[in-house]
Amino acid sequence: MQNSDLIWDLVDNHRTEFEALSDRVWGMPEIAYTEYRSVTEHTAMLRQQGFRVTENVAGIPTAVMGEAGEGGPIVAILGEYDALPGLSQEAGVAQPRPLPGNGHGHGCGHNLLGSAAMLAATAIKDWLEKSGRPGRVRYYGCPAEEGGAAKSFMAREGAFDGVDIAITWHPSAFTEVARALSLANTRMDFRFTGRASHAAAAPHLGRSALDAVELMNVGVNYLREHVPSDSRIHYAMLDSGGIAPNVVQATAAVRYAIRSRDLKGMQELNERVKQVAQGAAMMTGTTVHISIMSAVSNLLPNRPLEEAMQRNLERLGPIPFDAQDKAFAAKIQATLSEEDINNAYRAVGIPRRQETPLCDFIVPLDVRGEPMIGSTDVGDVSWVMPTVQAHAATIAIGTPGHSWQVTAQGKMPAAHKGMTHAAKMMAATAIDVFSDAELLAAAKKDHQERVGRTPYVCPIPADVTPPLQARPKEAA
After folding, report:
1. What is the pLDDT of residue 1?
2. Of the candidates 14, 71, 120, 18, the residue with the CA atom closest to the CA atom of residue 428
3. In the chain, what are the helix, strand and coil shares in percent, each to the nearest 5?
4. What pLDDT sits at residue 473?
5. Separation CA 464–CA 116 (nearest Å)
6. Nearest-10 Cα torsion for 64, 4, 416, 112
7. How far apart are CA 85 and CA 147, in angstroms?
8. How far apart are CA 214 and CA 240, in angstroms?
9. Cross-sheet strand order for the sheet of 251-260
10. pLDDT band of 476, cuts 50, 70, 90
11. Per-residue confidence at 2, pLDDT binned at 50, 70, 90?
12. How does the average pLDDT of the chain come out, rounded?
């Protein structure tokens, strides 16, 4: 029996328990740094499975780590469990139907992500015990991936020190070894302070902070023409200064997300946006306070680990969806446009397959589609150690990320099958690392060649702390 056959059996031994964990977390959606109930569920499961547990990792109360095994290499399996605001939705219903409550929803599938990651870690723990091999597996429960950059803070504080490789996954419309492609990203707040006055009787005495925000937005819009085509700049108003038009607004604030293909490009673009803000302050006679909320690095690939994961995926085969799975996926596709579906195929780089609402195939390793790139704090982990990521199909092809349709599919049998498949991909790749010293050495060599000339420096300044949130009453 090959190692992968045994590890897949060990995953199946725990499948039902972790499907239930995923469904429980789906039912308690919590946004960045408020994941108190979710981390409690994950911590309890780690203890139940016999892991040595460390809570409050890197000083973050909603982060947890469980370790098993002794000696040998250390393999980290990364999990997440944060939700998104505004994406509440009844499960298994192919039309918008928000649930009563806080309006949050697992519109990115992180209920599945964390549960499959811990399922993989549990199977690896069992394999280490059965094989008697030296080695340690760690499950990292990571909060606040959605805009909170928890892994970046964790990396800065040394939470991953000593780990040899990291493995993770993300729910997707396709089953593949994920392409290591993401944008470095800074979230930065610009708070302008002016002087209030009567807007009619004494406008000359006022200095409008709202004018400064509007001028900054205009300036950044002009800047967009003069940045690399794969850079992105977005903004959201935090404070418009009040609702009285007859008062010159003394304060106003705007938050910017500034993205670039790598850290150097992002840092350069950050400075240009800051200069626009300072110019807006000069034009309006106001002052501006600039603060970084969070930041993440771009992902680094690791070819040896990607090839190892692809070999395991090809042996494992496609996810075994059945007719009922495909029937519900077709209902979800009926809520989408043709462009949604075509866009999904363009992004992954394969021709559209008609009458295939779910991905019942494997995407080849070196297929390249049109880059449609977001950001993730897994990027910072990939700078600290060799990192590889899987995608497993849990949603209908064409489903937009961060949508009610993702939430609706988060407890379906197809999603459970996808998360189990992901656990098998991750666990088998970890076993290869434990069993093959040459693979581990090659992964480390590849990583060192990528970071040797540009050592990792966390993009979050040392004086910036995570925007921790108090424990909500319902989580007490």
Report:
1. 40
2. 120
3. 40, 20, 40
4. 78
5. 32
6. 20
7. 12
8. 10
9. 232-239, 251-260, 184-193, 287-296
10. low
11. low
12. 96
**DSSP 8-state secondary structure symbol assigned to residue 102:** S
Classify the C-alpha dihedral 93-95-97-102 as positive or negative: positive
pTM: 0.94
Q: How many helices (H) and strands (E) does the chain have?
A: 13, 11
- 185 token code pair: 């990203």
Measured CA to CA, the distance from residue 11 to residue 13 in angstroms comes to: 5
- pLDDT tens, position by position, 23-50: 999 999 999 999 999 999 999 999 999 9
Say if CB 38 and CB 64 are below 8 A apart.
no
Please tell me the predicted confidence (pLDDT) of residue 401: 95
**Cβ partners under 8 Å of residue 9, min gap 6:** none
Tell me which amino acid residue 91 is: A
Where would I find the beta strands (DSSP E) of 297-359? none
Measured CA to CA, the distance from residue 171 to residue 224 in angstroms comes to: 32
**CA–CA dist 18, 430 (Å, integer):** 19
Look-up: residue for tokens 């697992």? 106
| H or E, element range at 385 | none
Query: Can you tell me the distance from the alpha carbon of 162 to that of 64, in angstroms, rounded to the nearest whole number?
Result: 17
Residue 385: which of 188, 173, 140 has the closest Cα?
Answer: 140
Q: Closest Cα to residue 374, out of 447, 450, 306, 296?
A: 296
Angle between helices 437-451 and 413-435 (to 10 degrees): 100
State the pLDDT at residue 355: 86
CA pair distance 2, 431, nearest whole angstrom:
11
Pairing relationship of beta strands 135-142 and 74-80 according to DSSP bridges: parallel
The pLDDT score that the predictor gives to residue 20 is 98
**What is the C-alpha separation between 360 and 317, in angstroms, rounded?**
9
Contacts of 374 (CB under 8 A, 6+ apart): 182, 183, 401
**pLDDT tens by residue, 314-362:** 999 999 999 999 999 999 999 999 999 999 999 999 999 988 999 999 9
